[in-house]
Design a protein that fits this description.
Radius of gyration: 18 Å
Oligomer: single chain
Shape: elongated
Order of helices and strands: EEEEEEHEEHEE
Structural class: alpha/beta
Number of domains: 2
CATH topology of the largest domain: GMP Synthetase, Chain A, domain 3
Number of helices: 2
Strand content: 35-45%
CATH architecture of the largest domain: 2-Layer Sandwich
C-alpha cells in the first residue's frame, strides 16, 4: 500500500472489484486544504473567489486580504473594475459563497501585476 499526504482536498470513491482495492477521486482534486481559509464559519478557497471574479470581464485585477476584526476573521477584496460597480460583485459573491464580503474599487493600475504565479492573497490574521 502506498500512502500520500499531499494536502489536496478530494472526494474518494472506493472500489473493490475482485481481490483488488482502489480509489477513484470523484471530480479530481477539488482544492488545497492549506489554501483554505475560514471566514465567519464559511470555508473559502482563493481559487473559488478567483473563479467568480474572472466571470466579470470588466475586472482587470484583484487582491484578497484576510484580517481579524475583534475576534472574527473578515475578507476584503480590492478590484480594478472598469465599471466601478462593486455592488454587483458583492452580490454575486454572497450568492455563490454564502458570505458577505467587503468589495472595494481601487484606481486602475494601483494593484501589483505579476509575471508568473500571482500573490493576490494577503493573510493579516
Amino acid at each position: 500500500m502506498i500512502r500520500y499526504r499531499t494536502g489536496d482536498l478530494v472526494r474518494p470513491q472506493w472500489h473493490t472489484p475482485g481481490d483488488c482495492n482502489f480509489v477513484l477521486l470523484e471530480g479530481g482534486v477539488l482544492g488545497r486544504t492549506d489554501d483554505m481559509m475560514i471566514i465567519r464559519g464559511v470555508n473559502i478557497f482563493p481559487t473559488s473567489v478567483e473563479k467568480i471574479l474572472r466571470g466579470f470581464p470588466e475586472i482587470v485585477e484583484y487582491r484578497l486580504t484576510a484580517f481579524k476584526q475583534e475576534s472574527m476573521d473578515q475578507l476584503k477584496i480590492e478590484i480594478e473594475d472598469q465599471l466601478a460597480s462593486p455592488e454587483r460583485v458583492r452580490e454575486e459573491l454572497q450568492i455563490q459563497l454564502g458570505l458577505r464580503v467587503d468589495v472595494e474599487c481601487v484606481p486602475a493600475g494601483s494593484l501589483p501585476r505579476f509575471e508568473a504565479k500571482g500573490k493576490r492573497f494577503i493573510d493579516q490574521r
